[in-house]
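Lab notebook, bench 4. Still working through the backlog of constructs that have no structural model yet. Next entry is a single chain of 187 residues. Request: give me the structure tokens for it.
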Amino acid sequence: MLQTEPARHRFTVEEYRRMGELGFFTEDYRVELIRGDLVDMNPIGVPHMNCVTRLTHLFVERSSGRYFVSVQNPVAAADDSEPQPDFSLLRELSKTSAEGPPSKEKTLIAIEVSDTTLSYDRNVKLPLYAETGIPEAWIVDIKGKKIEVHSEPSPDGYKATRVFAAGEEVHSATVADLSVPVDEVMA
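Model written out:
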């Protein structure tokens, strides 16, 4: 019997990393592994770039040694997923280069800056972060000029969501005394 749908090869994190080591991906090749699929990441536009720069400054300024700021680096999510959030706030850094991306135990918050990727970030990456057990995830909605803070992860998604708009200050549900003004993020 002929197969009507082409077979798909799903990759594991181990295979994905090995392809990187072998030079399959060039430095300019922006891809992440999501549920076994290699997913092309959108080019970084100017609004996204400016927002990431402002957030980097705000997070580093407010860290006071309580967390590490990781910008556009992967996090360990599952055997078949290694997403690259725009930010991860980490409890600690990996002790060796062989240790790999930070685990859910080391990740306090995963943050996605959404300019053209809002639906993907909400419907694909956010549930993955919740299933992984990352305590908190933010979606910075550039076009909507608001920031969503999702907390209380479960296999069915985050159970708590708070939305902060212009004129308000975002407060983390996980990191004590971490707050950033929405207006400074969206400037």
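Notes after review: The longest helix spans residues 46-63. The longest strand covers residues 146-154. Flag for follow-up if needed.
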